[in-house]
Structures are given as structure tokens and as C-alpha cells.
Specification:
Length: 101
């Protein structure tokens, strides 16, 4: 995944213009990236777009425009991604066997 940079984050006015369409796109992407684990838990596999959306929404909600604080959000997103890389799960079919290639 290409690292998120400051240039990937829109200012308030620009984000407000595209927010509804961006939000609709992210909701659709998350539906396709969500996996149910039983009837009470689901896992959403994040990607670059979903992380950028989360950053944009946090900045919007908290009205953050300070570039240093925005950079902190980006660094936190990168650190979270780096921490998640070791997580993996082998694929299994519903009967517990390994899928055939």
C-alpha cells in the first residue's frame, strides 16, 4: 500500500465538496471488505482509501487544520498499518480443510 502523505488529505472546503460521494464509495468498499465471524463479530479489511476517509472524518469532526496535527494523524495511521502487517490467518473452507489452489 502506498504510504499516505499530507498531499492525500484535502482541506475542509475541498473535502466538503466531495464528502458525500467519497463517503458513499467508502461504505460500498467496506461492505465488500467485511467478513462475518459468527453472528456477533465482523472484520473489516482496511485499505488506503478507508484509512484516508477515517483521517478526513477525524479532521472534519475535530476541525483540525494545523498541518503538524494532520501529520500526527498520518503518522498514527502509518504506525497502525505497520503494527497490523504481521497479522495473518490461513484460509479455510467451511468444513475446516485448506482450500484447493
Amino acid at each position: 500500500m502506498k504510504k499516505i502523505a499530507l498531499d492525500d488529505i484535502l482541506g475542509f472546503a475541498a473535502y466538503e465538496k466531495v464528502r458525500q460521494q467519497f463517503r458513499d464509495d467508502i461504505i460500498d468498499k467496506k461492505k465488500r471488505r467485511r467478513v462475518a465471524v459468527g453472528d456477533k463479530i465482523s472484520i473489516v479489511f482496511e485499505n488506503r482509501d478507508t484509512v484516508i476517509f477515517q483521517i478526513q472524518e477525524m479532521l472534519r469532526a475535530e476541525r483540525i487544520a494545523d498541518l503538524d496535527k494532520i501529520r500526527e494523524f498520518i503518522r498514527a495511521a502509518r504506525a497502525a498499518e505497520k503494527a497490523m502487517k504481521p497479522l495473518a490467518s490461513p484460509a479455510r473452507t467451511s468444513d475446516g480443510s485448506a482450500p484447493k489452489s
